[in-house]
Amino acid sequence: MLRIFSDGGSRGNPGPSAYAIVVTEDGKVVHEHAEFLGIHTNNYAEYRGLIAGITKAVELGTKEAEFVMDSQLVIRQMTGQYQVKSPAVRELYDDARALVAQIPQVKFTNVRRSELLIPRADALLNAEMDRHAHP
Asked: Torsion angle of alpha carbons 126, 88, 96, 4, nearest 10°?
């Protein structure tokens, strides 16, 4: 089973934003990636991180994946506990749902930012935003 840790953030809302993913298998990091997104909202960045994680899981051909995030909103939307009201978020949500349908067994877990590999993903996304910051 793959465990995919993703985080997204923006400096300002909207503001410069990025996401990062850390993919693990049997407790070992097998892939990590961060990407600058430009000027977007925090929720946009969180969803783009999730979509990147799902895409990587599909590329790796996994049959079982757990997606771990510190975004309670995204996790609760993905599990059906919260409705998606924003049209901009709806498009991202629909993309994530379509991708995740390709994985037979999926679990979504919400954790505090300090738990597990979320700090690593957070550090990666902040480094990516720093790389694109204007002096």
From this structure: 20
